Amino acid sequence: MEIRKLNALRGIAAIIVFVTHFSDITHWLDGALGGGAGAYGVMLFFLLSGFLMSHLYLGTGFTPRGVKHYFVARFARVVPLYLLVVFASFTLTQGGSDLLYHIPDHQALLAHVLFLHGDSVLWSIPPEVQFYVLFVLLWLFAATRRGYIYLLIVGSLLLLFFTNFPRIYGEIQGVPYNQFTVLRSLPYFFIGVIFGLHYKTLTIPPYLRKHGFILALCLIPLMYPELSPVTSDAKNRMWLSYEVLLVMSVVFFCVVFLVPDNNILLANKVGDFFGKISYSLYLLHMPAITFINQFDWVVEIKLVASFALSTAVAFVSFACIERPIAGFIRRSADVGNLKQTERARPKARPF
Fold first, then answer.
1. pLDDT-based confidence at 4, cuts 50/70/90?
2. Total-model pTM
3. What is the average pLDDT across 38-59?
């Protein structure tokens, strides 16, 4: 069953990242909406990722066919467009243009292809792909020893806290890697997994399911470094702060569990649209902003033009690249499964 309001939440996450980068690049509002605050949009993406994987798969049987279907679906959703952007960025960089992202040599290209490192917004894709692999272990636990999932998550959170999130990065034969980005993102994926585990079973009293809980989204701008009333270093450490993890988890819980599914501000065609193009919008908005920023326009005009161009490019990417390739991969996998089943079926013997 589709949770429609999550489409809008995914779109909101992409727009948060867009606004932050626009503010940083153009110094709109003196950069008050920048300062790395796009991290909060990426946090929502990781919470959503963990939640949806847990919600969709942990209640199903752990079988080779199920795992194959899972990997095909995840691969088709994320990898093709990412690799296309990576190779296009590498080609353009070799030609002296950073229109997309800066991938200067074959070592950097290999790091991106192996999901070890990512330039600019591409940094978030390697953790996401690595979480796909980690999730299979959680799925295995869910089939026989669900309690181990909680032990693993709590133990990991404690370990990350007491080791101050180890800075694991460097180079191997000139190929850069950065596992620090994976470790700092892991708590958000884990919390999403826990929420997904309980979405079907947690009973929310009717008197608590109120449209007003959508206001929890207003907690996000209150954590922006230039807007936050918080005086601790949590507003600057962001990914390394469990206080931020708590607030983002509260926001996510309120929207997913407490806001009614028919909330008009989340369950609507606009939310559906931006939810569908959110991945393309996330990957391709930076070149659009950079392109528009070269014109000598009023910053508000740049904002409208950047958002319009980013949305148009994202829609074309979704309609012409992302969705067709994902559909082709899924159909090819289904055909392969059908042929394998037919080969395994006993042949009828003639009399």
1. very high
2. 0.93
3. 96
- Give the CA count within 13 Å in the CB-facing half-sphere of 142: 22
Say which residues have a Cβ less than 8 Å from residue 220's Cβ, sequence separation at least 6. Answer: 16, 40, 248, 251
Distance, in Å, from the CA atom of 146 to the CA atom of 143, rounded to the nearest integer, reads 7
Domains of the chain: which residue ranges?
A: 5-27+35-335
Quick check: helix, strand or coil at residue 304?
helix
Q: From CA 239, how far away is CA 153, in angstroms rounded?
A: 17
Structure tokens at 236: 């600057």
Residue 30 CA neighbour count, 13 Å, CB half: 3
Contacts 24+ apart (CB under 8 A), 153-158: 153/190, 153/193, 153/194, 156/186, 156/187, 156/190, 157/187, 157/190, 157/242
Amino acid at 117: H
> Three-class SS of residue 119?
coil
